[in-house]
Design a protein that fits this description.
Elements: E1 24-35, H1 39-50, E2 55-58, E3 80-81, E4 84-85, H2 89-101, H3 125-138, E5 142-144, E6 148-155, E7 158-165, E8 168-179, H4 185-189, E9 194-196, E10 203-210, H5 219-231, H6 247-252, E11 257-261, H7 269-291, E12 300-304, E13 314-316, H8 324-329, E14 336-339, E15 344-347, E16 354-357, E17 366-368, E18 380-382, H9 391-397, H10 400-420, H11 429-438
Parallel strand pairs: 1-2, 1-8, 2-5, 8-18
Antiparallel strand pairs: 3-4, 6-7, 7-8, 9-13, 10-11, 10-12, 14-17, 15-16
The protein binds flavin-adenine dinucleotide.
Flavin-adenine dinucleotide is lined by residues 35-41, 58-61, 66-68, 71, 73, 75-77, 120, 148-149, 180-183, 185, 204, 309-311, 384-385, 398-400, 403.
Length: 452
């Protein structure tokens, strides 16, 4: 736990010796449990802690940040649109401080970029994760890394969570719950329906290649050799060098190289394991092949992400669903909690490219409270890419700045539900907005965001 000793350590009753099926019972009642310390969950937990909420953060990995850090997609976007900042708050604070601490430079946000990704901010993974740890500590969040939920039960006054810790099952209690697992794991366990996306976008293994000069390569010869290797079954058709058969693109992205993994179910342990195995074995095949090509004799894999990045699995069936039409029309929802800004960005399921559709000038989509609340839920919210949305809208809403903003909003909504002792769908939104603004988030309003 990273909660300070002064704040009191968690007390867990000792289970009977040898009884590993009966969870040890913790006696405290947390105000909030957050499942997943990823892009959204880390921000939600910091926000809750800063609001004085007794918060439990549960994460299967050993550091915060999720896709941003562990899957090495360390270029969060997008916080600015049409020359103005549209997402700020705790996510922006961490991103900004990471860049400042590393002596880096922000893109010029006053200029409207030719390509959307030019406004993404590159963050150093180690510093981002470490700053997040520091803020979790300061906010006195109780962090349980290396832990996953085994069962979640809704009770009269909240939730009973049976967690699988390193040493066995332990039970915790929380008044409210935020599912920030990306895959709506907690919502599913608590009995709320999820919508499986079919087809799904490919996953990606991020890596970094060094030891060659791209400009010195004979690209035509490389293409020929690649096609021959595929024909000879040395490389198989599922070896997706980012975009199918695009060996040039794979090598050109120096330092940001990646492979696509198609047809996997990133929500389950079995599907995730298949992705990890297939992508790394595939990379090895490609590496062996490339090392034999002129100019690539010294090729090295300098970095390979510890975990594959997953773009799409399921979404919740929410109190409100954001459709592609809502997104591209820039619908301002009555109870909007944040803006979102990204093109529709569907990586084609078979790995053959991306369907990217930029938003029309001045379009600013928003996220309603109901997209974070499973239908019928009183005290459970989601934040991150599993928010209620159709495939088209989700391809844009899933990105990191939006996930962070949703995490912050979900924490404030959860706290307000406790304060007012009402379901989250009926809390006073003016109180929510006021708290969000106090914590530097940008609340959508008619006419767009003001100056920040
Ligand atoms: C390859 C790739 C490229 C992308 N490119 C961009 C980009 O350029 N810009 C951009 O902004 N976005 C990009 N995205 C999208 C964005 O990164 C993700 O959609 C976003 O980070 C999702 O945030 P999240 O909080 O929902 O999930 P995550 O950040 O994945 O967090 C989920 C957390 O929950 C944990 N978890 C999961 N299951 C359990 C469990 N059962 N128990 C405990 N913990 C659990 C995970 O370990 C993780 O820490 C990309 C995504 C991918 C995969």
């Amino acid at each position: 736990m990273c909660r300070s000793a002064a704040a009191g350590a968690l007390t867990v009753a000792t289970a009977a010796r040898g009884d590993t099926t009966r969870p040890k019972e913790a006696h405290e009642m947390f105000d909030l449990a957050v499942i997943g310390a990823g892009t959204a969950g880390t921000i939600a937990a910091i926000q809750a802690g800063r609001l004085g909420q007794r918060t439990l953060l549960v994460e299967k990995n050993g550091m915060p940040g999720g896709t941003t850090t562990v899957a090495a997609v360390n270029f969060p976007g997008i916080f600015h649109a049409w020359g103005r900042q549209v997402i700020a708050g705790i996510g922006w604070e961490l991103v900004w401080r990471t860049v400042a601490l590393c002596g880096g430079q922000m893109p010029d946000f006053t200029r409207i970029p030719e390509r959307h990704w030019q406004h993404q901010v590159r963050v150093n993974r180690a510093i981002y994760a470490s700053l997040a740890c520091e803020e979790l500590e300061k906010a006195e969040v109780n962090v349980l890394f290396h832990t996953m939920p085994a069962a979640i039960e809704e009770t009269d006054n909240g939730f009973r969570l049976t967690l699988c810790t390193k040493t066995g099952l332990e039970a915790f209690h929380a008044r409210t719950l935020i599912d920030a697992s990306g895959d709506a794991i907690a919502a599913g366990m608590a009995g709320y329906p999820v919508i499986e996306h079919d087809p799904r976008q490919p996953g990606t293994l991020m890596l970094s290649l060094t030891g060659y000069e791209y400009t010195g390569l004979d690209l035509d010869a490389l293409d020929r050799a690649y096609r021959e290797a595929v024909a000879a079954d040395e490389l198989n058709d599922r070896d997706q060098v980012f975009v199918r058969n695009n060996i040039r693109g794979f090598l050109h992205a120096r330092g940001d190289n990646c492979t696509h993994i198609t047809d996997i179910d990133g929500r389950t342990s079995a599907g995730r394991s298949e992705a990890e195995l297939r992508s790394r074995v595939s990379l090895l095949r490609v590496y062996r092949f490339l090392r034999r090509q002129p100019g690539l004799e010294n090729l090295q894999i300098a970095f390979m992400a510890p975990e594959c990045g997953i773009r799409e699995t399921v979404t919740i069936q929410g109190e409100a669903e954001i459709t592609g039409e809502d997104y591209v029309s820039g619908r301002l929802w009555e109870d909007a909690v944040c803006y979102s800004f990204y093109p529709i960005d569907l990586h084609l399921p078979a790995g053959g490219g991306i369907d990217t559709r930029p938003l029309a000038p001045d379009t600013l989509p928003t996220v309603p409270r109901g997209a974070l609340v499973p239908k019928g839920s009183k005290r459970l919210l989601v934040a991150g890419r599993c928010l209620s949305s159709d495939r088209e809208a989700n391809s844009a809403l899933r990105v990191q700045a939006t996930s962070m903003a949703c995490g912050q909003a979900a924490a404030v909504l959860a706290m307000q539900a406790i304060r007012e002792n009402v379901p989250v769908m009926t809390v006073n939104m003016e109180a929510v907005y006021s708290l969000l603004r106090e914590h530097k988030a940008i609340v959508p309003q008619a006419g767009g965001p003001g100056e920040t």
